[in-house]
Structure formats: C-alpha cells, structure tokens
C-alpha cells in the first residue's frame, strides 16, 4: 500500500498525520510544487507586516517528515494523473505510483486579464515566495495600489500600511468584504481602514496597468480615466483551484474548477480523494456543496480523507462559511448567511455605545448567520448553534439571549 | 487519561475556581499579588449562571477540537498522549479563528497582547487548581477509563 498526497499544506498535512495515526507502516509520500516545508499561507500577510518571521510560519518541527516516516518531495509539480496505471507524473518527469491518492493542491490567486498585468511590480499574495518578493519590492517605492476589497486584499493592504507604504485599495463593489459583510459591518471596517491611513476607493473599474519603458509598473488606470500612481500593485481577485493537471482524468473540464467530492472526500474516480481549497465543501446550511476556501475546512477535510484512505470510514460533517479578521486592532467575525437574499430570514442588528456591532440572521428560531465587530468574544457559541441547528422559541428569543453557553447551547447539550 | 468533569448540580457559584485559576496563572502564583492586581492575571475558568443553573466552564480539551482545526499558526495542538489541547503562546498572532469556532466559547481574547488564553490543565500541578479549590465537588479531576469512550465523548464535546 502506498499513499500519495499532492500538496503540502493544510489539507495534505492533516491527511498525512491522520493516515500515520491509523497506519504505522505503509509509505506516505507528499509532493509539493513549492520548495518549502509546510508553512501557513495565512501568515504570509503577517510576515509582510513584520509580525512574524519566516521561521514562525512553519507549521511543524524541523524533523517532522522524518519523525512521521513521510517522504517529502519538494519542487515536484504534478503534471498529470493516470488513474489506470495509478501513477502521477511531475513536471520534472518523475513518476510516483499510488494505491490511494489525495489531491490537496489548493488554489492559486486569480490573475484578471488586464492589459499590463505582466508588468514588473505586480504581485498577488498566495505563497511565502510571493511574500518575500513583495517585501523586496517594498524597498524601492512607497506607493501601493491593491486591486480588490476581499479579506486577503485587505490583509495585504494592512500589512503594507504597517510597513509604511501609502496604500490605496480599489474596490469594484460598493463596500469592502462584500462576500462576507453587509453594509453596516463593511462601513465599520472601512472606518478602521481610514483610521490607520488606508485609502479605499469603491465602485472603481480598473482597465489597465500602466508601466514605464522598462516594463515596470507606474500606476493603475480606471475606466473613468483616473490613474492611481503605484510603485507596487497587488492583485487580490479571489482564487482558482489548482486542478488543471487533472484534465485528462475527466475529473475537471478545463481546469480551474473545484473538484466534486462526496462526504468521504472521494472523487468520482476510485482511490482518488480530494480536500481543501481544490475541492468543493459540503455546506450544512444549504445541505449542498459550494466553494469555501478556508483553512479550517482544508484541515478537517484532509483529516477525513486521510481516515478513509487508511481504511476506516469517516464522513465530513460539513461546515459553514466563516472568517475572522482585524483592522486597526479591531476584530470582525462573520459566519453563515450574512446577506440573506431569499424570503423567510430575519436580520436583527444593533450598535452599542462603545461601537460594538452585533448582527444575527435568523430563520424560524434558528441562527443561520452572524457578524460581530468590536466585541467578538465567545463568537464560537454562535458558530456552534448554527452548526447544531438548535431551535429557539422565536427569532426574538434567540436575539435576546446573552452570549453565554447556558443561554445559547443549554445545559442539556452539555451533559 | 484524566479529565476535568463538571457537575453543574453541585455548583453554588462561589467562584473559588476562578480565583484559584487566576492565582495559579499569575507569575508569582501568590494570592495576595494576584488579588491586589500587582500582576495582571485572569482566570481561564468562568462560572456561568442563569439564575437556576450554575456552570463552571473552561476549555473542554475536546476529542476533536474545532479550535485546533481552525488554528492557522499551529499554536493550538492536540496532544495525543495526554488528550490536552495545548497552546503555544509564542505562535499565536491573535487571528481569533479559534474564538470563532470554539462551540463552548471557552477561549478568551487578550486584546492588549493579541493572544488567546485558555485552560492549560495546570501543567505544574498534580490536579488542576480549579478542581483543588472547588469546595462542593462540582469540579472533579478523575481518570476516565479509556474503554468508556462514549462517556468521555458525552462529557467533552456533545456537539
Ligand atoms: C494571505 C492569505 C490569508 C489567508 N487568511 C485566511 C484566514 O484568515 N482564515 C482562513 O480560514 N483562511 C485564510 N486563507 C486561506 C487558507 O490559506 C487556505 O484556505 C488554505 O491554505 C487551504 O489549504 P490547502 O491545503 O487546501 O491548499 P494550499 O494551502 O493552497 O496548499 C496547496 C499545496 O499544494 C501544492 N501544489 C499546488 N499545485 C501543485 C501541483 N500541481 N503539484 C504538487 N503540489 C502542488 C502547493 O505547493 C501547496 O503545498 C488565507 C490565504 C491567504 C493567501
């Protein structure tokens, strides 16, 4: 029996650890197209902001692979999978055989097809090497423009701001974090960004990236003709699953789509599993699969895949969309359905005198989503009752409950 | 494997556990210094009450901890031998992913240091300070037999 894992990050490492827990003997091989031992890409913005060192980013001890009996193969990019021969070929023309294969190749930053996007000084932040390259670029300029107002974009903006850059964020929609936050919460985050000195321009349509004769970026041009001067441009326009190498297997069409899996994280092909940002996630609220590329999902799905690959049976319990961020030291946490679009939802919100904001989305006495800004204490109690689908006598009753375990979860669930 | 077992029926909400916990986690481990506020120390156990039921609550060291899955730095980890959910403060960046996912709300945010704090089961003691201090037996530290897997699960997660 040979286990082969493509991807050396949250999902891949979780799977390898779980397999090793269950199966002490058989070989585990991990391939990565990056040169580094497993690190947390969520920390790349913290690295840029100077809060953590490269060493801090590594997820496991130096002797991890050896101690776990894992063969780690860096700089091996999977180029094709042959399910009949049970083999993976890499760009370096190496062939790896498997009995059980996990695809945990994650995702890459989207590169919109803007004229000039290939100019020097245009970056995305996804890998440790991206972070280092941005760090170097910061030394030769002060003006940074960030395209996109999502979570990762804002994290990069805050990191560059912390490095002393002048940062402008160009957002297409009418607010920041439009995927996660409604108007009120987004406005609160925007206030924080302004407070720390980040300029946010909303409703903007970049049409090209301007560069000088050497091909070095000079600015970003908008549809209305405005040009924002830039020494450094960060493109934060979401991610795309790393699945194109699977085209010939039929698991994907063009590539760039997420892989379909079942609750055991099995793909449509026998002995091939998928987990993390490369795959769809089972969403408890929709009772269906959607794309939800977050760290906890990758870790949990990797664990489930590993369990099944090692011969035990385990189902992914499902998750809900959620995220946490802080700007100017003020935290914001949003989870579940935060912008209900259909009928039948009640949205209740309040802002207290200290500037804390709480918003709940409810349906038939059940919590389906929330946003907390400022006071985010014990947010997991809300996440917990969304997931457990606990029902309260009414939406109002749930809204009134203090944020403690006894009121929300109740002693009956405790013992 | 030892576990902290809570019996809410016995809890009188005297808050002795909170004080003992705060003292244990003060650098000096001395009551007077802790009480006089010379040292900043906070308990990692809280007694909740709804007027009828009192519940001492701290990190349950879950079998399948949500916080560990959510931790993007590796600061939280499950120790497979002791069953403890360990926290390495030097790796914490205050992203609050664990706060977002702990279904017990048992992880506290230290907003000034930008790190979390939670029950560590008192590594320097035979028995956690809260269990030692509890005068009614509401908090007990006992061996949970390995075979009583269901029972353990029952006490620890129940989600
Ligand atoms: C700046 C930033 C901040 C973030 N912040 C948060 C946050 O606060 N909270 C949160 O929940 N999530 C956050 N995320 C998202 C989180 O990082 C991802 O959800 C998570 O890393 C997904 O893990 P994964 O293992 O599925 O894939 P990835 O982490 O993308 O890893 C994929 C692995 O596969 C390898 N690989 C790719 N292609 C190939 C190939 N063809 N052959 C071999 N190996 C390959 C890569 O080298 C890598 O090892 C953030 C992401 C970024 C970039």
Question: What can you see in these coordinates?
Answer:
- The complex is a heterodimer of chains A (415) and B (159).
- With 415 residues, chain A is an alpha/beta fold.
- Chain A folds into three domains: 2-44 and 58-108 and 239-309, FAD/NAD(P)-binding domain (3-Layer(bba) Sandwich); 122-235, FAD/NAD(P)-binding domain; 337-409, 2-Layer Sandwich (Enolase-like, domain 1), CATH 3.30.390.
- Chain A has twelve helices and 25 strands.
- A five-stranded parallel β-sheet of chain A has the order 3-2-1-7-18. Chain A has a five-stranded parallel β-sheet with strand order 9-16-10-11-12, with helices on one face.
- Chain A starts with a strand and ends with a helix.
- Chain B has two domains: 1-55 and 121-159, 2-Layer Sandwich (Alpha-Beta Plaits), CATH 3.30.70.20; 59-118, Alpha-Beta Plaits (2-Layer Sandwich).
- Chain B has six helices and eight strands, in the order E-H-H-E-E-H-E-E-H-E-E-H-E-H.
- Chain B has helices at 16-24, 31-35, 66-70, 97-101, 129-133, 149-156, and strands at 2-6, 46-49, 54-57, 76-78, 85-87, 108-110, 115-117, 139-143.
- Chain B has a two-stranded antiparallel sheet with strand order 1-8.
- The longest helix of chain B is centred in the first third of the chain and has 9 residues, at 16-24.
- Mean pLDDT of chain B is 87; it is low at 153-159.
- The complex binds flavin-adenine dinucleotide.
- Flavin-adenine dinucleotide sits between chains A (6-12, 31-34, 41-42, 44-45, 77-78, 104-107, 125-126, 152, 155, 242, 245, 276-277, 293-296, 298, 323) and B (72, 95, 97).
């Amino acid at each position: 029996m040979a286990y082969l894992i493509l991807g050396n990050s949250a999902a891949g490492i979780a799977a390898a650890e779980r397999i090793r827990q269950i199966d002490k003997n058989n070989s585990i091989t991990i391939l990565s197209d990056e040169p580094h031992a497993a690190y947390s890409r969520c920390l790349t913005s913290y690295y840029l902001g100077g809060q953590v060192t490269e060493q801090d980013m590594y997820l496991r001890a130096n002797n991890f692979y050896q101690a776990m009996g894992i063969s780690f193969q860096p700089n091996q990019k999977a180029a094709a999978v042959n399910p009949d021969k049970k083999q993976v070929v890499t760009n370096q023309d190496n062939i790896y055989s498997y009995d059980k294969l996990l695809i945990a190749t994650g995702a890459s930053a989207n590169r919109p097809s803007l004229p000039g996007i290939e100019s020097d000084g245009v970056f995305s932040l996804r890998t440790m090497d991206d972070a280092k390259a941005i760090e170097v670029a910061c030394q030769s300029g002060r003006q940074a423009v960030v395209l996109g107002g999502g979570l990762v974009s804002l994290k990069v903006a805050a990191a560059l701001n912390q490095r002393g850059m002048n940062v402008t964020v160009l957002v297409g929609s009418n607010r920041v974090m439009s995927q996660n936050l409604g108007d009120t919460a987004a406005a609160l985050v925007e206030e924080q960004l302004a407070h720390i000195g980040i300029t946010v321009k909303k409703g903007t349509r970049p049409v090209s990236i301007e560069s000088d004769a050497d091909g070095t970026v000079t600015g970003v041009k908008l549809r209305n003709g405005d040009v924002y001067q830039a020494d450094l441009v960060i493109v934060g326009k979401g991610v795309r699953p790393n699945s194109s190498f699977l085209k010939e297997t039929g698991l994907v069409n063009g590539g760039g789509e997420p892989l379909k899996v079942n609750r055991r994280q099995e793909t449509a092909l026998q002995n091939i599993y998928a987990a993390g940002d490369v795959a769809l996630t089972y969403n408890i609220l929709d009772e269906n699969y959607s794309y939800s590329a977050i760290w906890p999902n990758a870790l949990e799905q990797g664990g489930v895949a590993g369990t099944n690959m090692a011969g035990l049976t385990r189902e992914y319990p499902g998750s809900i969309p959620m995220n946490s961020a802080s700007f100017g030291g003020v935290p914001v946490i949003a989870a579940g359905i935060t912008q209900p679009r259909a009928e039948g939802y009640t949205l209740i919100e309040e802002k207290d005198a200290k500037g804390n904001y709480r918003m709940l989305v409810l349906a038939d006495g059940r919590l389906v989503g929330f946003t907390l800004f400022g006071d985010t204490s014990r947010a997991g109690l809300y996440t917990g009752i969304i997931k457990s689908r606990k029902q309260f006598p009414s939406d109002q009753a749930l809204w009134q409950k203090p944020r403690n375990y006894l009121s929300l979860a109740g002693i009956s669930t405790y013992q | 494997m030892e576990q902290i077992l809570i019996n809410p029926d016995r809890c009188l909400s005297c808050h002795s556990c909170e004080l003992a916990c705060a003292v244990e986690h003060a650098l000096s481990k001395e009551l007077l210094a802790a009480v006089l506020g010379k040292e900043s120390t906070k308990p990692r156990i809280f007694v909740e009450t709804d007027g009828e039921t009192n519940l001492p609550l701290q990190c349950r060291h879950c079998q399948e901890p949500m916080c560990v899955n959510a931790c993007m730095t590796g600061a939280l980890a499950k120790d497979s031998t002791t069953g403890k959910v360990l926290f390495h403060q030097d790796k914490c960046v205050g992203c609050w992913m664990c706060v977002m996912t702990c279904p017990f709300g048992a992880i506290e945010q230290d907003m000034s240091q930008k790190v979390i704090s939670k029950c560590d089961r008192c590594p320097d003691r035979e028995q956690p300070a809260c269990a030692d201090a509890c005068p009614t037996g509401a908090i007990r530290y006992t061996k949970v037999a390995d075979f009583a897997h269901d029972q353990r699960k029952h006490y620890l997660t129940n989600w």
